[in-house]
């Protein structure tokens, strides 16, 4: 099992072409002083280390959406990626994979605990997700966050060619834009937030909040998932800093200006469609149906096991539908894939306990002998298996309490022709674009139950109309479009190197 850029486990891709064997000491063909016109900085590198039986390290491409998106950006051009390799301690030397130059950043055990688990995932993550669980504030974590962000900025400064384009990703690296600008005012800096940006009332709770805004304003362009996220950022700047905000542009006292706008991320539509159309995958989808007892309805949930994803609300609704007899467990099966995530944090361990207790209760009370009302899979799967699951499912249930985008909903759309349906929380970024999904408020359990039943029982014609409309949206706005859109915005941003006022 592997860890993605977000740190959760992912399976190894089966495509042999994506596997390269690299000595952990690095590729001597990449001189440390070599520089690049395009540099990506993200918490994690796009590869995961796997130790073989012989003790040798093999690097394999992480299967996440970010990696796919960046591959399309990097196509035909050389670039560097700066990020953590996933293990605490000494960083491996720089190496090349699929013409991408990878520059590992060192994270010591203290950094993992304080910068990654602490400040990033126990402070910023809850604040940026409506404080679904209370955020924790520790001065030690903030110090570590500054320390690690400085290390990232220094690495990027070393590897960026004169006038390079630098694309910084996500909430773990919000100080990098300003730190990098101090070191290299010649480079063009963009930052993209994969998660929501909180309302100013919540953001204000955070000690060091001005520092985060100032850190981000070191960029030339800031991309967010939704318009309300960009608006929240602009409102925070207006309220907390001595700047002028006009429209979507922040004007700084030094004469620079920074634009903040929505550039919603998407999925590799063509790649997923091709995979879903593969006869082996279709065969596997039919097998899954059969293994589940050939039920009339297959409901599916696919989420990282995170308190933002609304798993408990979904299980409650499903349990009540079984209890009331609205759903018959001999006709309906619910498959919940819950990817292991951040298990060192108490809130995540607690959630896992609650979810597994509920799964046991539902199955204990409702499963017929020889089958289960709820199939719970707490592990990662290869991409092909995920696509087969999407293809097999009649209704996808996506109920986050807050989610930056939710790629799962878009993946399901790409994997289906005209059949299928999605129950989708209004609190996901995806709901803005997939307005023909069966939208729901996951906090309202009664309405959620009604929406699930409606999605299951609407006639095929209604499903077809809705799926067609959503498919057009995802096909037009795929991940390649997202990456191009972001870079076009970044290139168009006014850029003033030091001394050019
Ligand atoms: P995540 O919170 O991780 O991402 P999401 O957008 O749903 O959430 O992406 C999860 C990805 O992992 C999907 O591609 C899914 O297919 C895959 N996946 C999930 N479980 C899996 C399993 N068991 N095995 C294999 N693959 C699995 C963050 C933000 C989101 C935002 C994305 C991208 O929280 O809001 O959409 O970044 O910007």
TrEMBL record:
GO MF terms on file? Answer: alpha,alpha-trehalose-phosphate synthase (UDP-forming) activity; trehalose-phosphatase activity
InterPro entries attached here? Answer: Glyco_trans_20
Alphabetical GO CC annotations of the entry are: cytosol
> Which Gene Ontology biological process is one annotated for this entry?
trehalose biosynthetic process
Q: Tell me one Pfam family matched here.
A: Glyco_transf_20
Q: Which domain of life is it from?
A: Bacteria
- Family under the similarity heading: Belongs to the glycosyltransferase 20 family.
What is the protein's given name? Trehalose-6-phosphate synthase
Which species expresses this protein natively?
Answer: Leekyejoonella antrihumi
């Amino acid at each position: 099992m592997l860890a993605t850029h977000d740190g959760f486990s992912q399976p190894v891709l089966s495509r042999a072409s994506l596997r390269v064997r690299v000595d952990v000491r690095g590729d001597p063909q990449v001189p440390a002083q070599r520089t690049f016109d395009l540099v990506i900085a993200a918490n994690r590198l796009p590869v995961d280390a796997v130790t073989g039986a012989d003790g040798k390290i093999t690097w394999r491409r992480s299967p996440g959406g970010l990696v796919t998106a960046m591959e399309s950006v990097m196509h035909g051009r050389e670039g560097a990626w700066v990020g953590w390799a996933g293990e605490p301690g000494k960083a491996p030397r720089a190496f090349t994979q699929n013409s991408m130059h990878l520059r590992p950043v060192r994270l010591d055990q203290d950094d993992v605990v304080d910068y990654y688990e602490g400040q990033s995932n126990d402070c910023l993550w809850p604040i940026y997700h409506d404080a679904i669980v209370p955020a924790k504030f520790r001065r030690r974590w903030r110090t570590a966050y500054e320390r690690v962000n400085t290390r990232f900025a220094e690495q990027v400064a070393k590897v960026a060619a004169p006038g390079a384009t630098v694309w910084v990703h996500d909430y773990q690296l919000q100080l990098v834009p300003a730190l990098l600008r101090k070191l290299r005012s010649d480079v063009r800096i963009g930052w993209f937030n994969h998660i929501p940006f909180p309302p100013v009332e919540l953001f204000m709770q955070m000690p060091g909040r001005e520092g985060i805004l100032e850190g981000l304003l070191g960029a030339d362009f800031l991309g967010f998932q939704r318009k309300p996220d960009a608006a929240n950022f602009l409102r925070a700047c207006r309220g907390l800093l001595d700047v002028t905000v006009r429209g979507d542009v922040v004007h700084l006292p030094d004469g620079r200006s920074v634009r903040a706008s929505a550039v919603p991320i998407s999925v590799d539509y063509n790649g997923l469609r091709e995979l879903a159309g593969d006869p082996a995958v279709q065969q596997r989808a039919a097998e899954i149906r059969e293994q589940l007892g050939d039920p009339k309805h297959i409901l599916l949930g696919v989420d990282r096991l995170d308190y933002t994803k609304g798993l408990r609300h979904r299980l409650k609704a499903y349990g009540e539908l079984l209890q009331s007899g609205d759903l018959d467990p001999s006709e309906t099966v619910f498959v919940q894939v819950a990817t292991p995530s951040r298990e060192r944090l108490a809130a995540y361990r607690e959630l896992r306990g609650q979810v597994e207790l509920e799964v046991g209760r539902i199955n204990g009370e409702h499963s017929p002998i020889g089958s289960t009302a709820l199939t719970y899979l707490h592990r990662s799967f290869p991409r092909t298996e995920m696509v087969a699951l999407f293809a097999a499912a009649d209704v996808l249930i996506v109920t986050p309490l807050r989610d930056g985008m939710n790629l799962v909903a878009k993946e399901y759309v790409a994997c289906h022709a005209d059949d299928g349906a999605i129950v989708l929380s209004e609190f996901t970024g995806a709901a803005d674009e997939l307005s023909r999904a069966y939208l729901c408020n996951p906090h309202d359990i009664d309405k959620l139950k009604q929406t699930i039943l409606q999605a299951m029982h609407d006639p095929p014609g209604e499903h077809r109309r809705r799926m067609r409309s959503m498919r057009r949206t995802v096909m037009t706005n795929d991940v390649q479009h997202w990456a191009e859109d972001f870079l076009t915005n970044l290139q168009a941003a006014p850029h003033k190197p030091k001394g050019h006022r």
